Amino acid sequence: MKLKVNRLATTWWKFWQQQPTIAWTFSVIWLLLISWVAFLWHLGSTGLVDETEPLFAEAARQMTVTGDWITPYFNGDTRFDKPPLVYWLMAIGYKLIGVNEWAVRLPSAIAAIALTVLGFYTLRSYGVCRPAILTQLHNSGLEGNSNIKHTPSKIPKLQPQLRLSAWIGSALIAFNPLTIVWARTGVSDMLLSGCMGCALLSFFLGYAQSEQVKEKTLFSTSKDRWYLAFYLLIALAILAKGPVGIVLPAIIIGTFLLYLGNAWDVLREMRLVRGITIILTIALPWYILVTIAHGDDYLESFFGYHNFERFTGVVNGHGAPWYFYFLVVLVGFAPWSSYLPMAITRIRFWQRQRWQSAPRSTHLGLFALFWFAGIFGFFTIAVTKLPSYVLPLMPAAAILLALMWSEYGSRGEGERGGWGEGERGRRGDGGMARGDGERGRRGDGGMARGDGEKDKINFVSLPSRPFDPILPSGIFNLILLVVIAAVVFYGSQLLGYDPAAPNLSELLQKSGLPTRGCLIWGSTALLTGLLLLRQRWWRWLWSVNLVGFIAFLILVLMPLIFLMDEARQLPLRQLSAHAAQVGQPGEELIMIGFEKPSVAFYTQRPVNYFSRQRKAMAYIKKVTLKKPQSSFVILLKSGELKETKLKPNQYTSLGSAGAYKLIRVIALRAGNS
Fold this sequence. Notes:
Strand order of the largest sheet: 6-5-7-9-8
Distance between the termini: 97 Å
Structural class: mainly alpha
Number of strands: 9
């Protein structure tokens, strides 16, 4: 007697199996749609956000002005915080589409899109969670040739799960808060995550293909091409953010191979010496040239301060407790983070012998776990902590959940359980017991069927159990959604005073966005609760979260970004544009009381920053003593004009916007204030 199967799900999977062309067309449209909505939609429609983004944007613009593509400069000073790849890509964007926000953010968006697409391809090829699945199918007579034997994508019964895994995984890689934020910001974090993530996926694609029949080409095997891509991407990661671009992948891959006990074999097939040569050839020249140009200044700033000291000490006050990244992952991967403990547990990493004896093509889940744990552990040990540091583990988290949900969603109604869960019979090697009331013993991992079916395979059918581990995760998901709805609703009241936008909280409340966001997440929580009440619908919990997240992104988050841009950044852009128009040749631009790097980018002029009015006035008097006809354009907060002690006849008002005022001071001499 067959287990009951949800008719809708069965019809769905049969349709995709019978229409491979339509399935691939849908997949392409799916990737284009999620990439556009997550990363490209309104990418350059808002101004640069102080404080960090304009530093990168202006340093890249300076490269196009000076023609010096080796040394990054900001506002006349060297900027050794990051290597040059992000500046080079932005500068190329300026040449192609102009000096604008699109060119600044496009490298981050492209890196995120590449990671999403390659994640889809990897899951579409190897998106199975448990080695026992292939063992089951092989023992059923489907191992007809060597390609099928180790390639999940070549086994017909795995096609539904692989498609679902790829669709879910690519969506989760794109639609999580941390990735959305950094893929839309013109800094180096997403570029590092994209290069490193694609490198790790390339490694796995080469690693998983190493057991297949080698398809020779004019240049190399398919395996060799993926390993070559791995080395090229590692070199780019080093140029994106320094040594961390190779240290983290080395930790992840090294611990993964040591766990499996095949490190020497894999390193040999990777041709490690050739790979290191490729990495050094691409990444090393810039480091040599910039060191020749600046010597100890560069070495102490980049390697000493921005790498070693960040790991061993607190830099710029960015310290946090040891559990900091537990909170970052909980919020930054919400609402999916509620299912991460279950997804990690299902890998059953403690069963080492089973993993060691399993085909490499089933190791994606285990590799994703080492990927996740390696980055999480590394930055937990590091003393300086920032939320963006764990951005590179988000794809691994998405893969873990995609494997879990695809396996769960590909089963029939009432079929549950993890690796070896839900089995009523005893088995010697982790095979899967199925059938009507099976309670026999099996020692060979084969499949016992109690209904006399000898030729058919019911894909991953497991007898139901009274308890499913997805239930507590679903309850946690429900609680998290309720908390998110409450935080969104009361968020405007919790905002502190922002001197750059004093009326931001009031504007937010008038916009109705908190209420709209609360309704979206509240509805998502309600639907999640309803699904939890019906056991047969648990497989669709991921889709409710996805729809809620996309609705929030489109209807709340994007309007919120425009609102904050108008309140905080637009006044500075307006005054910066005006300062560039009214500025006279040789006239100095001064900012008093605050430092906003976006002014340097939008005026395309050097800016002299002073933290106090007294220092600024003393500087102006000193300059006018030497050059009596000197004039200065000053940008300051409107309420602080009185503190400069300037008399009405000593300055001319040029304009005001938001909380800021632009004035011109001419020939201010000692004794005239």
